[in-house]
Amino acid sequence: MIASLAARHSWFEATARARLGGLLDPGSFSEILPPAESNPSPHLALLDLPGAFDDGVVVCYGQLEKKPIFAIAQEGQFMGGAVGEIHGAKIVGMLRRAAQEKPAAVLFLIDSGGVRLHEANAGLIAISEIMRAVLDARAAGVPVIALVGGSCGAFGGMGIVAKLCSAIIISEEGRLALSGPEVIETVAGVEEFDSKDRALVWRVTGGKHRYLMGDCAMLVDDDIAAFRRGATEFLAGWSEPTPDVATLRARQRVLQNRLAAYGALRDGLDVWAALGIAQPESVPLLDRDSLVALKEGLPT
Amino acid sequence: MSLNDILDSLFPAGHTVAVANQVITGEATTAQGTVAVLGTSAAAAIDHAMALALSGFILDTIERHPGRPLLFLVDTSGQALSRSQELLCLNGSLAHLAQCVDLARRQGHASLSLVTANAVSGGFLSFGLMADRAYALADAQVRVMDLRAMSRVTKIAHERLVELAADSPIFAPGAESYVRMGAIEAIWPAPSASLLENALAAARQAAPASDQRQSSGLERGGRQLAANITKTVQNAACGA
Description:
Chain A is an alpha/beta fold. Chain A has helices at residues 2-7, 16-23, 42-46, 85-101, 120-139, 157-164, 181-188, 198-205, 207-212, 224-236, 245-262, 268-275, 288-295; strands spanning 30-32, 57-64, 67-74, 105-110, 144-148, 167-171, 218-220.
């Protein structure tokens, strides 16, 4: 216990490269189009903004428990991990390559607010291309696993992309949604969503809530090694299904039932109570293992 | 132009299309046969109920009418902005809708989208941009965000953005930018049965279409980098 605490390395605070360093087998990281071989975004330069040679995303191949995998890691500390033309094209290239070469999995380390507004059209179209490329890789039998636990979460179009993946592994610190709370507050008012109320934001968009609702397959501690264990464990028990009507019909029913049951609620506390959790107010305080135990036996 | 005028112009041979909760569903007759017609109207802000109505209709079409082409009529101001919508993972319902469009493609349904008025961000991503090919009417508004809001968020002067937008399809709002970027095939001066029939015929021939938007964007000069970077990543030697 003490050893594991001492060794803990926060995913939330790590850079994209540090996350990959701890996620993949030691020494297996091999970057495609590394910073020395690429150029920063000319669109940002046109606006007199600093660029990054990797444009805020690292694409690589490597190994996970000796199996060949591809990985894509967004850097939340550059432009909020947002998707511009180069950033998006690197991701599309890696996913298309996966559909051809069929690695054991693609690990998609999402840390992004969505479209990079400075390259808005290029970003939006790139996200659409990423959506199709994720589904093409999956249809080719390659699982695509989203790992969400960075400071920017998975928002906007990248929130949609995350939900198109085979599964999402999330930490309590991870957030997953469509519109950011600030955007909702700006447009609909502070009564609708107070973006400064951190606890509320986490009860609506945070990892524990998404896990309890079944929107994320796995909840892990904010620890790079825990994400590595989670991905390994998930892949060991997973074979990518062929896309079919029956699966999407079943999903359609789940989503419709859920909307009918909880559509009028506005706070995680209310949904957790409706799910049958006796003391919903205790959820934010529970550690990861207790929360996973609590989820056993809940609906969804 | 009203939805009925658009439908009458597109389908002079007849259509039975219903609109409920801003969601369009129905079918129409064309020279290419019967097509499923679906989409949103009146600048709908897409919420769970709308997304699930559309995805349910797509699943019905796949099950009952194998191979029937899908025509999406797109008029969306984006996604619904509300806490209760986010609480139930709105991105999940939009992803489900996108996945249903994708499944239809894999099962041999050609798909087209026509932006009739507005196409904005998340609402556009979830179905319009998932179609094999997208088209827009001449006065359609296609964008992520208008330049004033963009100026507020990016803290770049509005005048500067307007100046740059004049010759940068990378971020200038407008259907024309999306044509140059490769995401919209063409702009139609008005809704037209013959343009629709040509588009349907082209989509059916090309099916199952792979995603050609990067190379279109390169050919049209709007997106100079993406196609080559994707290709470089796909072909880079693996050192292992």
